[in-house]
Amino acid sequence: MQAVFTVNYKDLTLSFNEFHDVSDKDMPQYGEYCLLELKTGAYTAGGWHPSGGEHSTAGFFLRGTADTVDSEEVARWHSLDRYDLTESLEDEEISWINLGPEEEGDHNVQFDGFKSFADRKAPKQEQFCLLIMKDGSLAAGRWNKWQNTAGGSFIYSSALASHSSDEVWAWTPLSSDEIFAMEVERENEKKREKKLNRNPSVDPELFKYGTDINTYYEKALEKLREEFTWATLPMMRKEKPLWQIAPLHGKYVFGQISKNYYDDSDIVTPWTEGSTADEFIDFLIKYAHDAVEHANPDKKFKFGTDINVYLEKAFHNVKKEYRWLDKKMLGQSWQYDIRRVDGDLEFVRRYWNESEFSVYDVESAERFIESVESDYQSTALQANKTVSSYAPSFGHISLHGWNLESYVFYKLKSGDYKVSVTAGDRTTGGSRDFFITPHCFEAKTYEEFLDRYLEIVPPYSFGLGKKELLPDKDLKQFLGY
After folding, report:
1. What separation in angstroms does the CA of 379 have from each of 301, 376, 454?
2. In angstroms, what is the C-alpha Rg of the chain?
3. Tens of pLDDT along 66-93?
4. DSSP 3-state of 113
C-alpha cells in the first residue's frame, strides 16, 4: 500500500551532511546514484561508472544517454541510494530532514523550494532535479515533458531510463548545466522569433505578386502547361514537401515547414536559390516538373477509366501461374477504384475492412497493374494452405547486418510450393514468402531447378545458394526430384 506523506513539501528542507571527498580517493560503489558537488560549486547527480583500478578516481557519473560528468569535475559526492524518508515524511511536524549526522566540520548543503505535480507544477524542459519519490527514496533526473500530455519523466541513465512523473512526490531544481542552458537559450530564441514575426516585413521584389502561395503555383502552372498540356495544380502539389509563405526572423520568406521532433513547433527552411518572385516561379516549375511529367493521364489511364478493366488484366496475369486463384479469394483483400481527388482522376485503394480509400500514386497503367498483381499473388499464397514443410539446415548467415533465422520450403494444398525466409537482428526482423513458379519445375534436373529457383530467391539477398542446397538430398526428394 502506498505511504501517505503528511509533511508540507513547500516548507521542507533536506540537509546533506555526509559528503565524501574525491581527493581522498573515496569513491562510491559501481552504479551508486549520488548527489554531486562540482568544483565550480554547482550541484548535479549521477550514477558512478569507474574506469580505473580499485582506488582510482577515474571514471564518470552517468546522468542520461550521452550525458555524463567526468570525475575530474567533481569535488564531493553524497549517496542518494541509501535513504528511505518514509517515516519522516509521515510526520506532519517535520520540516527539516538531516541526511547523515550533522557534526561540526562536516560539509553541508541544504535543498528546499520543493514543488509537486499534484499542484500542476512541472520543471522546465531539460532541468536536472532532485526528487523525493512516492516510496520515500531519493533520486534525480533530467525533466523530459511528454508531447501532448501533462506528464513527463526524469531521465537518469542510458537508453532513456527514467522516473515517471507519477512516481515522484516532490522535486526541486539542481544547478543549471550546459544542456539546460542550451534549452533555455532555445526557448528564449523561440520567444524572440515569435516577437519578430508578429508583424513580418515584405520584400517587394520577392513578393511582387502578393503573399498568397497559390498565386505563385498558378503562375508556374501556366508555364508548365506549355510543355505538359495536362498539368494541374494537384499534380504539382504531389511533389512534397510543399512550398509555403511563412514568417522567419521578422520577414516573409518562401519556405518549407516541418515539425520539431521535440516540441512539435514549426521549423521553416527558407528558399535560398534566388531573390525575386519570378526566380521563385521558375524554381517551382523545376521542382514540380517530374511529378507533372509522370502524371500524364493518357499513360496513367491508358485502358480507360473503368477499374474492372485493370483488375481483369491483373487477375488474368496472376492466374497463369497461381492456378488456384479464384475471384472469391479477393473479397477480403485490397479493393480498388478510380476516383476524382482534388479535381484529378486517381487510382485509389483500401483494405477490405477499412472505410476510406487512399491515393495509390503510380505513373502508368502498367505500373498500377503490376502493383495489383503483387497484391493478388500475396492473397493467393495466403489462401493456399500448406500440407508439409522442409527446413534445410544452415549455420550462421549474415545478411547485410541481419541474421538468417528461418528458411522453410512448403508444399501447398494445390501441389505447388513456396519458400518462407525470416531474418532479423537483436531488435527487429521480417519475413517474406516466395512462390516457386511452375517454370522452375519444368527443369529436367534438380540442378537446373536450382538455377531457376535462385533467380527468384537469390543467395546474396536471402542466405542460401546452390552450394548449400544442391547436396541436400532430403530437399531434392521433398521437391519431387
Report:
1. 25, 5, 23
2. 33
3. 899 999 999 999 999 989 999 999 999 9
4. coil
